[in-house]
Known about the structure:
Layout: E1 3-14, E2 19-25, H1 27-32, E3 38-42, E4 53-62, E5 68-76, H2 80-87, E6 93-100, E7 112-118, H3 125-134, E8 140-145, H4 154-159, E9 163-168, E10 175-176, H5 180-189, E11 196-201, H6 204-216, E12 221-224, E13 240-244, E14 250-254, E15 261-263
Helix pairs in contact: 5-6
Amino acid sequence: MKADVDAIVLSNTRLSPHYNVLALEAPGIAREVEPGQFVMLKTSAWDAPLLRRPYSVFEIVRDEAGQPLGVSVLSKRVGTGSQQVYDAAPGQRIACLGPLGRPFEAVDAPAAAWMVAGGVGLAPFATLAVVLRRRGVAPTLFYGARSAAELFCLDLFTSLGVRLELATEDGSRGDRGRVTVPLQRALAATPAGSPVMVYACGPEAMLKAVALLARHYARPSQLAMERLMGCGLGGCYSCVVRVRGENGATHYARACLDGPVFRGDEIVWD
């Protein structure tokens, strides 16, 4: 059940001059959220920005007793709204609507779970890793960035029991090139009979490449599509994704309702 609350900022962790993790007190949302779902944040009571902004839930924040207290979001400042998220101070109130959208479907052991992230596409995988570990699955994170300086929260994922496969465009850490370099190597090296689910979140060009690689190696994939959303509730149709139905006909689905997670084989890329 979604809630619309004035969430109190619990903490603001600056990861770099452009990235931060903002923790918000929202226990009702924290109790309900599933991996891959998102919240809509309005950082100002005034007109700038007028609309809320979508953010994947990064972590579930817990109190000293281990009870859900709130959620965090991973943000990169690129405009007015994300600048306000970057500048938010503890004690400040931010309008927070969620949880919204269709989540990832977690696999069970003995299936392997490969999470592919680019940039802030890392966000939904901390909560997914927790769920997968509870199901006895040891996940692998394929994580790509421009340089080693933009690979964030690696210690967090290691502490969750996640194996890391890294790639940087400048070769400063891991493979040189896109995150699809280690992913393709792993796909090619895995026996055909071994069950693997590929999860991905990041820029659309990366998602397309991941979906096509997974299809080539006959592996299922689930993709969290990044879309600009005006409302998050399906009313504005600003976040449509072209998909193929069971009968082969194509139509436009709203990422905020039918997604943001879609099967890789249902998305029409051309």
